[in-house]
Design brief:
The complex is a heterodimer of chains A (about 250) and B (about 80). With about 250 residues, chain A is mainly alpha-helical. Helices cover about 65% and strands about 5% of the residues of chain A. In chain A, the strands form 2 sheets. Chain A has a two-stranded antiparallel ribbon with strand order 1-4. In chain A, strand 2 and strand 3 form a beta hairpin. In chain A, helix 1 packs across helix 2, helix 4 packs antiparallel against helix 6 and helix 4 packs parallel to helix 7. Chain A starts with 18 loop residues before the first strand and ends with a helix. Chain B has a single domain, classed as F1F0 ATP synthase subunit C (F1FO ATP Synthase, Up-down Bundle), CATH 1.20.20. Chain B is built from 3 helices and no strands. In chain B, helix 1 runs antiparallel to helix 3. The longest helix of chain B has about 30 residues. The radius of gyration of chain B is 17 Å and the shape is elongated. The chains are: A mainly alpha (about 250), B mainly alpha (about 80). At the A-B interface, helix 6 and helix 7 of A face helix 3 of B.
Chain lengths: ~250, ~80
């Protein structure tokens, strides 16, 4: 939560992307921004955790090794339960998505840093990638039979004109709902904290009261950050299961 | 009506949507409690699903809240 909101300042200021190193290729702006900086930090931290955790692997794990193993086991269990054992080929992808979103959400909670998952560009790019991958996997595994996915087996044929458009719309809205869920959670949560921080200055004498609420909100945001990373990952798993097993 | 008061009214209207999510979250936890009370052995399995449902429902509340914030503060 950056840019503590005074009475006059805007709680949405914290989401402004500022270029750190200005770069232009032709008319395309490829500046290195604060968003890119936070992404780099997230990647470096993830790599440090996993490489540092497995460098001197011991039978009795140390702190770093347990953290790395816990993250691995958590995601591996999720993939095994939701996609099945033949889904472990997607494990590296699912694990990368989980760690990237989790670290993005958590790094954003550090005061005066920046939450890159609070931008729809980032989350929609992730969701669109998942959507394209799921569709590609379904086509590679099942070929033309993939279109049977849009008609639930066992439903009466008379219902087809209603069911098929509904199934197609719900399939196409997957990347939208997946990305907006993460983006809205992050943005609304951080705006809410900034608004309550603004109340601290706006309310004379009883300014400590909004601070107490903000402490509770901060705790909620930590839970939400982890939970939304989990939700994003488990929905990716569920979509992949649909693609691998076709209902 | 001047734009500032229109903004306030619009944000207030947008926040009504949170009521639906309140019903949803109450429903989820009520069902979670009663199902764990009926079958305490199923706690571990049911709890994860309950948390997933909570996160999905809470997201709906945040959509409404997001619109309210955008109406209020976006320039």
């Amino acid at each position: 939560m950056s840019g503590v909101a005074g009475e006059g300042s805007n709680p949405l200021e914290q989401f402004v992307i500022e270029p750190i190193v200005k770069l232009h290729i032709g008319s395309v702006d490829v500046s290195y921004t604060n968003s890119a900086l936070l992404m780099t930090i997230a990647i470096v931290l993830i790599a440090a955790l996993l490489i540092g955790g497995t460098r001197r692997a011991a039978l009795v794990p140390g702190r770093l090794q347990s953290a790395a193993e816990m993250a691995y086991e958590f995601v591996a269990g999720m993939v095994r339960e939701n996609i099945g054992h033949d889904g472990m080929e997607f494990f590296p992808l699912v694990f990368s998505i989980f760690m990237f979103v989790l670290f993005g959400n958590m790094l954003g909670l550090i005061p005066f840093s920046f939450t890159f998952t609070s931008h729809i560009v980032v989350t929609f790019a992730l969701a669109l990638f998942v959507f394209a991958l799921v569709t590609a996997v379904a086509f590679i595994k099942h070929g033309i039979r993939f279109f049977g996915f849009f008609f639930p087996s066992g439903a009466p044929v008379v219902m087809a004109p209603i069911l098929i458009p509904i199934e197609i719309v719900s399939y196409l809205s997957r990347p939208v709902s997946l990305s907006i869920r993460l983006f809205a959670n992050m943005m609304a949560g951080h705006t809410m904290m900034a608004v309550f921080a603004g109340f601290v200055i706006a309310v004379p004498l009883f300014g400590f009261f909004p601070v107490l609420i903000n402490v509770a909100l901060y705790g909620l945001e930590v839970i939400v950050a982890a939970l939304q990373a989990y939700v994003f990952t488990i929905l990716t798993c569920l979509y992949l299961r649909d693609a691998v097993h076709l209902h | 009506m001047d734009p500032t008061s229109a903004k306030m009214i619009g944000a207030g209207l947008a926040a009504i949507g949170v009521a639906g999510a309140g019903v949803g979250i109450g429903n989820i936890f009520g069902t979670l409690v009663s199902s764990i009370a009926r079958n305490p052995a199923a706690r571990d399995q049911v709890f994860g699903i309950g948390m997933l449902g909570f996160a999905l429902t809470e997201a709906v509340a945040l959509y409404a809240l997001l619109i309210a914030f955008l109406v209020l503060y976006a320039t």
